[in-house]
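pinned: reference chain
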Amino acid sequence: MVIDTSFTTSGNLAWSQLTTLEQVEYNLVFYWSTRESTWYLSILDQNDNHLADWIRIVINSSLLRRFQASGQTPPGLLIAMDMSGTDAEIAQPSDLGSRAILSYTPSTDPGLVGFNLYTAA
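pinned: its structure tokens
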């Protein structure tokens, strides 16, 4: 499942959106850091309780791995992929949602069976 991040292509440097992952609704909050030239993601529950904060969005890395042991974040694999094939990191705000996309694979996906998401890079 590709997570809609098209807000970035309109010049927004911060926004939040409700996204349902594995039948649970999460509030995903995105922030662009001009100083670091990178996007950050925070995940909140339906009551706006913070579950995971300041996740740096990097290419080809399991973005939730350090938070999943808590059992409160989505249990699947959230990864940013570079669609250009160069695996270049995000350098401009507009990269997310155009060249780089966020993809979520549910924990029930057969491709994740036996895969340890806590140690995935």
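why pinned: The beta strands are 2-3, 14-21, 24-33, 38-44, 50-56, 77-82, 100-105. The longest strand covers residues 24-33.
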